[in-house]
Amino acid sequence: MVDAEHGRRADEGSGPGHLQQHHQVVRTRHALVPPVPRVAVPRRRGLLCRIAQHLGVLARSGRERSGGTCPVGHAHRHRRRSLARCPAPNDTTERRSAPMKVAWIGLGNMGGPMAGNLVAAGYTVTGYDPSEQAQRSAAEHGVSVATVLAEAVAGADVVFTMLPNGRLVSSVLLDADGVLDHLPAGALVVDSSTIDIATARELHEAVTGRGFRFLDAPVSGGVFGAAAGTLTFMVGGTGENLEAARPLIEVLAGRVFHAGGPGAGQSAKLANNMMLAINTAGLAEGATLADRLGLDPAVFYQIAEVSSGSSWALKNWYPSPGVVETAAVNHDFNGGFAVSLMRKDVGLALEAGAGAGLDLPYASRALADLDRLIEAGWSGKDTASMVKLVDGTLPDPGSTADATAD
Ligand SMILES: NC(=O)c1ccc[n+]([C@@H]2O[C@H](COP(=O)([O-])OP(=O)(O)OC[C@H]3O[C@@H](n4cnc5c(N)ncnc54)[C@H](O)[C@@H]3O)[C@@H](O)[C@H]2O)c1
Protein backbone atom coordinates (compact mmCIF):
# COMPACT_ATOMS: atom_id res chain seq x y z
CA MET A 1 0.00 0.00 0.00
CA VAL A 2 2.72 2.41 0.92
CA ASP A 3 4.46 1.57 -2.34
CA ALA A 4 1.48 2.91 -4.24
CA GLU A 5 2.56 6.50 -3.85
CA HIS A 6 6.19 6.35 -4.64
CA GLY A 7 6.64 8.45 -7.71
CA ARG A 8 4.61 6.29 -10.01
CA ARG A 9 2.14 9.03 -10.76
CA ALA A 10 5.01 11.46 -11.22
CA ASP A 11 6.06 9.37 -14.23
CA GLU A 12 2.84 10.33 -15.93
CA GLY A 13 3.02 14.05 -15.12
CA SER A 14 3.77 16.91 -17.44
CA GLY A 15 6.80 18.29 -15.61
CA PRO A 16 9.83 20.05 -17.05
CA GLY A 17 11.68 18.29 -19.85
CA HIS A 18 14.73 17.35 -17.80
CA LEU A 19 12.50 15.73 -15.19
CA GLN A 20 10.59 13.67 -17.74
CA GLN A 21 13.82 12.66 -19.39
CA HIS A 22 15.15 11.44 -16.07
CA HIS A 23 12.01 9.44 -15.41
CA GLN A 24 12.74 7.55 -18.58
CA VAL A 25 16.25 6.86 -17.39
CA VAL A 26 14.86 5.61 -14.09
CA ARG A 27 12.35 3.36 -15.85
CA THR A 28 14.99 1.95 -18.16
CA ARG A 29 17.36 1.35 -15.31
CA HIS A 30 14.75 -0.47 -13.27
CA ALA A 31 13.74 -2.49 -16.29
CA LEU A 32 17.31 -3.71 -16.72
CA VAL A 33 17.71 -4.86 -13.14
CA PRO A 34 16.43 -8.42 -12.79
CA PRO A 35 14.03 -8.93 -9.91
CA VAL A 36 15.75 -10.14 -6.78
CA PRO A 37 14.06 -13.07 -5.09
CA ARG A 38 12.46 -12.18 -1.78
CA VAL A 39 13.76 -13.89 1.32
CA ALA A 40 11.39 -16.10 3.25
CA VAL A 41 10.89 -13.48 5.94
CA PRO A 42 7.36 -12.10 6.43
CA ARG A 43 8.38 -8.62 5.30
CA ARG A 44 5.12 -6.91 6.15
CA ARG A 45 5.18 -8.25 9.68
CA GLY A 46 8.76 -7.12 10.05
CA LEU A 47 7.83 -3.69 8.75
CA LEU A 48 4.91 -3.29 11.10
CA CYS A 49 7.03 -4.47 14.00
CA ARG A 50 9.70 -1.90 13.14
CA ILE A 51 7.17 0.92 12.89
CA ALA A 52 5.27 -0.10 15.98
CA GLN A 53 8.52 -0.42 17.84
CA HIS A 54 9.69 2.98 16.64
CA LEU A 55 6.43 4.50 17.80
CA GLY A 56 6.97 2.84 21.16
CA VAL A 57 4.04 0.46 20.73
CA LEU A 58 6.05 -2.74 21.00
CA ALA A 59 9.23 -3.72 22.74
CA ARG A 60 11.02 -6.18 20.51
CA SER A 61 13.91 -8.50 20.94
CA GLY A 62 17.13 -8.05 18.99
CA ARG A 63 16.31 -11.20 17.03
CA GLU A 64 13.01 -9.78 15.79
CA ARG A 65 14.74 -6.52 14.93
CA SER A 66 17.26 -8.35 12.77
CA GLY A 67 14.35 -9.17 10.42
CA GLY A 68 15.72 -12.50 9.19
CA THR A 69 18.79 -14.57 8.74
CA CYS A 70 21.21 -14.02 5.92
CA PRO A 71 21.21 -17.13 3.75
CA VAL A 72 25.00 -17.04 3.61
CA GLY A 73 25.51 -16.33 7.28
CA HIS A 74 26.17 -12.58 7.38
CA ALA A 75 25.16 -10.57 10.38
CA HIS A 76 23.06 -7.96 8.61
CA ARG A 77 19.29 -7.99 8.13
CA HIS A 78 17.95 -8.70 4.67
CA ARG A 79 15.55 -6.60 2.78
CA ARG A 80 15.14 -6.73 -0.98
CA ARG A 81 18.02 -4.40 -1.81
CA SER A 82 20.42 -5.50 0.90
CA LEU A 83 19.93 -9.09 -0.25
CA ALA A 84 20.92 -7.96 -3.72
CA ARG A 85 24.17 -6.69 -2.25
CA CYS A 86 24.81 -9.71 -0.10
CA PRO A 87 28.08 -11.22 -1.28
CA ALA A 88 28.57 -14.89 -1.93
CA PRO A 89 30.17 -16.82 0.95
CA ASN A 90 33.59 -16.80 -0.71
CA ASP A 91 33.35 -13.18 -1.91
CA THR A 92 36.17 -11.26 -0.27
CA THR A 93 35.07 -7.92 -1.74
CA GLU A 94 32.33 -7.40 0.84
CA ARG A 95 31.83 -3.74 1.73
CA ARG A 96 33.48 -4.35 5.09
CA SER A 97 36.83 -4.16 3.25
CA ALA A 98 36.13 -0.48 2.33
CA PRO A 99 33.34 0.68 4.59
CA MET A 100 31.67 4.00 3.91
CA LYS A 101 31.26 5.88 7.16
CA VAL A 102 27.95 7.64 7.55
CA ALA A 103 26.87 10.32 10.03
CA TRP A 104 23.15 10.92 10.59
CA ILE A 105 21.94 14.18 12.16
CA GLY A 106 18.30 14.16 13.30
CA LEU A 107 17.04 10.78 14.48
CA GLY A 108 13.30 11.55 14.75
CA ASN A 109 10.28 9.82 13.23
CA MET A 110 11.96 9.70 9.82
CA GLY A 111 15.69 9.91 10.53
CA GLY A 112 15.73 7.13 13.14
CA PRO A 113 14.38 4.35 10.94
CA MET A 114 16.27 5.63 7.87
CA ALA A 115 19.58 5.53 9.74
CA GLY A 116 18.58 2.10 11.06
CA ASN A 117 18.06 0.84 7.53
CA LEU A 118 21.60 1.86 6.58
CA VAL A 119 22.90 -0.07 9.59
CA ALA A 120 20.80 -3.06 8.53
CA ALA A 121 22.35 -2.85 5.06
CA GLY A 122 25.83 -3.09 6.57
CA TYR A 123 26.94 0.54 6.85
CA THR A 124 28.60 2.08 9.89
CA VAL A 125 26.29 4.87 11.03
CA THR A 126 26.88 7.30 13.87
CA GLY A 127 23.91 9.48 14.72
CA TYR A 128 23.33 12.66 16.68
CA ASP A 129 20.10 14.06 18.12
CA PRO A 130 19.65 16.02 21.36
CA SER A 131 16.37 14.23 22.12
CA GLU A 132 16.84 11.32 24.51
CA GLN A 133 13.82 9.53 23.09
CA ALA A 134 15.27 9.78 19.56
CA GLN A 135 18.65 8.57 20.85
CA ARG A 136 17.08 5.53 22.51
CA SER A 137 15.00 4.66 19.49
CA ALA A 138 17.95 5.02 17.08
CA ALA A 139 20.14 2.87 19.32
CA GLU A 140 17.45 0.19 19.16
CA HIS A 141 17.73 0.44 15.35
CA GLY A 142 21.45 -0.34 15.68
CA VAL A 143 22.74 3.22 15.21
CA SER A 144 25.77 4.27 17.28
CA VAL A 145 24.61 7.41 19.02
CA ALA A 146 27.14 10.17 19.66
CA THR A 147 26.75 12.53 22.58
CA VAL A 148 28.09 15.52 20.65
CA LEU A 149 27.77 16.52 17.01
CA ALA A 150 31.53 16.62 16.42
CA GLU A 151 31.87 12.98 17.45
CA ALA A 152 29.13 11.90 15.03
CA VAL A 153 30.65 13.53 11.96
CA ALA A 154 34.37 12.98 12.63
CA GLY A 155 35.80 10.93 9.76
CA ALA A 156 32.45 10.59 7.97
CA ASP A 157 32.33 10.15 4.19
CA VAL A 158 28.67 11.14 3.99
CA VAL A 159 26.46 13.12 6.37
CA PHE A 160 22.67 12.99 6.18
CA THR A 161 20.57 15.68 7.87
CA MET A 162 16.89 14.96 8.67
CA LEU A 163 15.76 18.00 10.64
CA PRO A 164 12.54 19.94 11.13
CA ASN A 165 13.36 23.11 9.15
CA GLY A 166 15.86 25.07 7.07
CA ARG A 167 17.01 27.34 9.87
CA LEU A 168 18.13 24.31 11.88
CA VAL A 169 19.78 22.65 8.89
CA SER A 170 21.79 25.82 8.18
CA SER A 171 22.78 26.22 11.78
CA VAL A 172 23.74 22.56 12.27
CA LEU A 173 25.87 22.61 9.12
CA LEU A 174 27.38 26.09 9.04
CA ASP A 175 27.60 27.43 12.59
CA ALA A 176 30.86 27.47 14.52
CA ASP A 177 31.47 23.96 15.87
CA GLY A 178 28.86 22.71 13.40
CA VAL A 179 29.08 19.79 10.97
CA LEU A 180 31.42 21.44 8.45
CA ASP A 181 33.92 22.35 11.17
CA HIS A 182 34.45 18.65 11.91
CA LEU A 183 33.93 16.94 8.55
CA PRO A 184 36.81 15.67 6.41
CA ALA A 185 37.34 17.85 3.30
CA GLY A 186 35.40 16.71 0.26
CA ALA A 187 32.77 14.78 2.23
CA LEU A 188 29.22 14.68 0.89
CA VAL A 189 26.32 16.31 2.77
CA VAL A 190 22.82 15.10 1.90
CA ASP A 191 19.96 17.11 3.36
CA SER A 192 16.77 15.03 3.33
CA SER A 193 14.74 17.44 5.45
CA THR A 194 11.95 19.41 3.81
CA ILE A 195 13.10 23.04 3.78
CA ASP A 196 12.56 26.22 1.79
CA ILE A 197 14.04 26.45 -1.68
CA ALA A 198 16.09 29.60 -1.00
CA THR A 199 17.86 28.03 1.99
CA ALA A 200 18.54 24.85 0.00
CA ARG A 201 20.19 26.92 -2.74
CA GLU A 202 22.19 28.93 -0.19
CA LEU A 203 23.37 25.68 1.38
CA HIS A 204 24.57 24.34 -1.98
CA GLU A 205 26.68 27.47 -2.33
CA ALA A 206 27.90 27.66 1.27
CA VAL A 207 28.75 23.95 1.60
CA THR A 208 30.51 23.65 -1.75
CA GLY A 209 32.24 26.97 -1.07
CA ARG A 210 33.89 25.37 1.95
CA GLY A 211 35.18 22.41 -0.04
CA PHE A 212 32.42 19.85 0.53
CA ARG A 213 29.68 18.40 -1.71
CA PHE A 214 25.95 18.91 -1.22
CA LEU A 215 22.60 17.53 -2.35
CA ASP A 216 19.10 18.63 -1.41
CA ALA A 217 17.31 15.27 -1.28
CA PRO A 218 13.91 15.49 0.41
CA VAL A 219 11.72 12.41 0.58
CA SER A 220 8.11 11.31 0.35
CA GLY A 221 6.50 8.18 1.73
CA GLY A 222 6.07 8.97 5.43
CA VAL A 223 7.20 6.99 8.42
CA PHE A 224 6.12 3.70 6.85
CA GLY A 225 8.23 4.43 3.76
CA ALA A 226 11.13 5.38 6.05
CA ALA A 227 10.87 2.12 7.96
CA ALA A 228 10.34 0.00 4.84
CA GLY A 229 13.13 1.65 2.82
CA THR A 230 10.65 2.56 0.07
CA LEU A 231 10.83 6.37 0.18
CA THR A 232 10.72 8.47 -2.97
CA PHE A 233 13.85 10.61 -3.14
CA MET A 234 13.74 13.82 -5.19
CA VAL A 235 17.25 15.11 -5.57
CA GLY A 236 18.64 18.53 -6.46
CA GLY A 237 22.32 19.02 -7.27
CA THR A 238 24.87 17.56 -9.63
CA GLY A 239 24.46 14.13 -11.19
CA GLU A 240 27.97 13.31 -10.01
CA ASN A 241 27.06 13.93 -6.38
CA LEU A 242 23.85 11.93 -6.78
CA GLU A 243 25.84 8.97 -8.13
CA ALA A 244 28.19 9.21 -5.14
CA ALA A 245 25.22 9.11 -2.75
CA ARG A 246 23.20 6.57 -4.74
CA PRO A 247 24.39 3.36 -2.98
CA LEU A 248 23.18 4.81 0.32
CA ILE A 249 20.02 6.41 -1.06
CA GLU A 250 18.98 3.19 -2.74
CA VAL A 251 18.93 1.44 0.62
CA LEU A 252 16.39 4.02 1.76
CA ALA A 253 14.40 4.50 -1.42
CA GLY A 254 11.82 2.83 -3.60
CA ARG A 255 12.40 5.42 -6.33
CA VAL A 256 15.12 8.02 -6.89
CA PHE A 257 14.60 11.05 -9.14
CA HIS A 258 17.17 13.62 -10.17
CA ALA A 259 14.82 16.61 -10.16
CA GLY A 260 17.43 19.08 -11.41
CA GLY A 261 20.03 21.51 -10.06
CA PRO A 262 20.36 23.11 -6.61
CA GLY A 263 16.97 23.43 -4.87
CA ALA A 264 15.07 21.33 -7.43
CA GLY A 265 14.52 18.52 -4.94
CA GLN A 266 12.86 20.94 -2.52
CA SER A 267 10.79 22.50 -5.33
CA ALA A 268 9.39 19.05 -6.18
CA LYS A 269 8.81 18.20 -2.53
CA LEU A 270 6.92 21.42 -1.73
CA ALA A 271 4.63 21.07 -4.77
CA ASN A 272 4.04 17.42 -3.81
CA ASN A 273 3.24 18.14 -0.18
CA MET A 274 0.96 21.02 -1.09
CA MET A 275 -1.05 18.50 -3.14
CA LEU A 276 -0.98 16.04 -0.23
CA ALA A 277 -2.43 18.65 2.15
CA ILE A 278 -5.24 19.46 -0.30
CA ASN A 279 -5.87 15.75 -0.90
CA THR A 280 -6.02 15.13 2.84
CA ALA A 281 -8.60 17.90 3.25
CA GLY A 282 -10.64 16.33 0.43
CA LEU A 283 -10.27 12.90 2.01
CA ALA A 284 -11.49 14.26 5.36
CA GLU A 285 -14.62 15.65 3.72
CA GLY A 286 -15.28 12.59 1.49
CA ALA A 287 -14.79 10.05 4.27
CA THR A 288 -17.01 12.02 6.65
CA LEU A 289 -19.72 12.48 4.00
CA ALA A 290 -19.69 8.73 3.19
CA ASP A 291 -19.97 7.99 6.90
CA ARG A 292 -22.89 10.39 7.43
CA LEU A 293 -24.65 8.90 4.40
CA GLY A 294 -24.60 5.58 6.20
CA LEU A 295 -21.94 3.82 4.17
CA ASP A 296 -19.73 1.20 5.80
CA PRO A 297 -16.29 2.92 5.89
CA ALA A 298 -14.51 -0.29 4.84
CA VAL A 299 -16.81 -0.71 1.84
CA PHE A 300 -16.57 2.94 0.81
CA TYR A 301 -12.79 2.72 1.13
CA GLN A 302 -12.70 -0.23 -1.25
CA ILE A 303 -14.87 1.64 -3.75
CA ALA A 304 -12.90 4.90 -3.61
CA GLU A 305 -9.53 3.15 -3.67
CA VAL A 306 -10.18 1.87 -7.19
CA SER A 307 -12.24 4.87 -8.31
CA SER A 308 -11.46 8.43 -9.31
CA GLY A 309 -11.52 9.67 -5.70
CA SER A 310 -8.41 7.67 -4.85
CA SER A 311 -5.20 9.29 -3.62
CA TRP A 312 -2.09 8.42 -1.62
CA ALA A 313 -3.78 10.08 1.37
CA LEU A 314 -6.78 7.77 0.99
CA LYS A 315 -4.66 4.64 0.63
CA ASN A 316 -2.46 5.39 3.62
CA TRP A 317 -4.36 7.73 5.91
CA TYR A 318 -8.05 6.76 5.62
CA PRO A 319 -9.47 8.49 8.72
CA SER A 320 -11.94 5.84 10.00
CA PRO A 321 -10.48 3.37 12.53
CA GLY A 322 -9.68 -0.14 11.38
CA VAL A 323 -9.92 0.49 7.63
CA VAL A 324 -6.26 1.07 6.66
CA GLU A 325 -3.70 -0.38 9.00
CA THR A 326 -1.10 2.38 8.34
CA ALA A 327 -3.53 5.16 9.26
CA ALA A 328 -2.77 7.28 12.32
CA VAL A 329 -6.46 7.28 13.29
CA ASN A 330 -5.80 3.76 14.60
CA HIS A 331 -3.50 5.17 17.31
CA ASP A 332 -5.18 8.45 18.20
CA PHE A 333 -3.31 10.34 15.45
CA ASN A 334 0.04 9.92 17.25
CA GLY A 335 3.30 9.54 15.30
CA GLY A 336 3.26 9.91 11.53
CA PHE A 337 3.51 13.28 9.78
CA ALA A 338 2.94 16.06 12.27
CA VAL A 339 0.46 18.85 11.56
CA SER A 340 3.25 21.34 12.35
CA LEU A 341 5.47 19.84 9.64
CA MET A 342 2.69 19.83 7.06
CA ARG A 343 1.89 23.44 8.02
CA LYS A 344 5.52 24.32 7.41
CA ASP A 345 5.49 22.63 3.98
CA VAL A 346 2.23 24.24 2.81
CA GLY A 347 3.46 27.62 4.06
CA LEU A 348 6.71 27.17 2.11
CA ALA A 349 4.77 26.07 -0.99
CA LEU A 350 2.58 29.18 -0.75
CA GLU A 351 5.68 31.37 -0.40
CA ALA A 352 7.18 29.71 -3.45
CA GLY A 353 3.86 30.18 -5.28
CA ALA A 354 3.74 33.87 -4.37
CA GLY A 355 7.29 34.21 -5.69
CA ALA A 356 6.11 32.65 -8.94
CA GLY A 357 3.11 35.02 -9.13
CA LEU A 358 0.57 32.26 -8.38
CA ASP A 359 -2.63 32.42 -6.39
CA LEU A 360 -3.22 29.01 -4.75
CA PRO A 361 -6.61 29.19 -3.01
CA TYR A 362 -7.00 25.51 -2.10
CA ALA A 363 -3.55 25.44 -0.52
CA SER A 364 -4.38 28.65 1.35
CA ARG A 365 -7.51 27.00 2.75
CA ALA A 366 -5.52 23.90 3.75
CA LEU A 367 -3.03 26.18 5.53
CA ALA A 368 -5.86 27.85 7.46
CA ASP A 369 -7.21 24.42 8.45
CA LEU A 370 -3.78 23.31 9.68
CA ASP A 371 -3.54 26.53 11.70
CA ARG A 372 -6.89 25.72 13.32
CA LEU A 373 -5.54 22.32 14.37
CA ILE A 374 -2.42 23.95 15.78
CA GLU A 375 -4.53 26.48 17.71
CA ALA A 376 -6.47 23.55 19.15
CA GLY A 377 -3.23 22.03 20.44
CA TRP A 378 -2.86 19.37 17.74
CA SER A 379 0.41 20.48 16.14
CA GLY A 380 2.17 17.24 17.11
CA LYS A 381 -0.63 14.98 15.89
CA ASP A 382 -0.71 13.36 12.46
CA THR A 383 -1.95 15.45 9.52
CA ALA A 384 -4.82 13.01 8.90
CA SER A 385 -6.40 14.60 11.99
CA MET A 386 -7.72 17.21 9.54
CA VAL A 387 -10.81 14.99 9.60
CA LYS A 388 -11.60 16.39 13.04
CA LEU A 389 -12.28 19.78 11.50
CA VAL A 390 -15.00 18.16 9.39
CA ASP A 391 -16.61 15.61 11.70
CA GLY A 392 -16.86 18.02 14.62
CA THR A 393 -14.77 15.96 17.05
CA LEU A 394 -11.93 18.47 17.53
CA PRO A 395 -11.73 19.24 21.24
CA ASP A 396 -11.92 22.87 22.33
CA PRO A 397 -8.57 24.71 22.28
CA GLY A 398 -6.77 24.20 25.56
CA SER A 399 -8.45 20.90 26.40
CA THR A 400 -5.86 18.79 24.54
CA ALA A 401 -2.36 18.25 25.89
CA ASP A 402 -0.02 18.72 22.94
CA ALA A 403 2.74 16.58 24.33
CA THR A 404 4.31 15.72 20.99
CA ALA A 405 4.43 19.18 19.44
CA ASP A 406 7.86 20.17 18.19
N1 LIG B 1 7.24 12.55 9.24
C1 LIG B 1 6.98 12.40 7.95
O1 LIG B 1 6.06 11.68 7.54
C2 LIG B 1 7.86 13.10 6.93
C3 LIG B 1 7.80 12.70 5.59
C4 LIG B 1 8.63 13.30 4.68
C5 LIG B 1 9.51 14.32 5.05
N2 LIG B 1 9.52 14.72 6.35
C6 LIG B 1 10.47 15.79 6.72
O2 LIG B 1 11.56 15.17 7.39
C7 LIG B 1 12.09 16.06 8.38
C8 LIG B 1 12.08 15.35 9.73
O3 LIG B 1 10.74 14.95 10.00
P1 LIG B 1 10.41 14.00 11.25
O4 LIG B 1 8.98 13.63 11.10
O5 LIG B 1 11.46 12.97 11.39
O6 LIG B 1 10.55 15.07 12.42
P2 LIG B 1 10.89 14.77 13.95
O7 LIG B 1 10.51 16.02 14.66
O8 LIG B 1 10.31 13.47 14.36
O9 LIG B 1 12.49 14.62 13.93
C9 LIG B 1 13.36 15.70 13.88
C10 LIG B 1 14.49 15.39 14.83
O10 LIG B 1 15.48 16.42 14.71
C11 LIG B 1 16.04 16.52 16.00
N3 LIG B 1 16.81 17.75 16.14
C12 LIG B 1 16.36 18.99 16.42
N4 LIG B 1 17.42 19.85 16.50
C13 LIG B 1 18.53 19.12 16.27
C14 LIG B 1 19.91 19.41 16.20
N5 LIG B 1 20.37 20.64 16.41
N6 LIG B 1 20.79 18.42 15.94
C15 LIG B 1 20.35 17.16 15.73
N7 LIG B 1 19.05 16.81 15.78
C16 LIG B 1 18.15 17.78 16.03
C17 LIG B 1 14.87 16.46 16.94
O11 LIG B 1 15.25 16.18 18.27
C18 LIG B 1 14.06 15.35 16.29
O12 LIG B 1 14.35 14.08 16.87
C19 LIG B 1 11.21 17.32 8.34
O13 LIG B 1 11.85 18.29 7.57
C20 LIG B 1 9.93 16.82 7.69
O14 LIG B 1 9.24 17.88 7.03
C21 LIG B 1 8.74 14.13 7.31
Task: Explain this structure.
The structure is a single chain. A 6-stranded parallel sheet has the order 3-2-1-4-5-6, with helices on both faces. The protein has a 3-stranded mixed sheet with strand order 7-8-9. The chain folds into 2 domains: 2-261, Rossmann fold, CATH 3.40.50.720; 268-391, N-(1-d-carboxylethyl)-l-norvaline Dehydrogenase, domain 2, CATH 1.10.1040. It is globular, with a radius of gyration of 21 Å. The chain contains 18 helices and 9 strands. Mean pLDDT is 80; it is low at 1-97 and 401-406. The protein is α/β, with parallel strands linked by helices and 406 residues long. The protein binds nicotinamide-adenine-dinucleotide (NAD). Nicotinamide-adenine-dinucleotide is lined by residues 105-111, 128-131, 134, 162-164, 168, 172, 193-194, 219-220, 222-223, 336-337, 341, 406.
Classified in CATH, the superfamily of the largest domain is: NAD(P)-binding Rossmann-like Domain
Number of helices: 18
> What's the domain count?
2
Radius of gyration: 21 Å
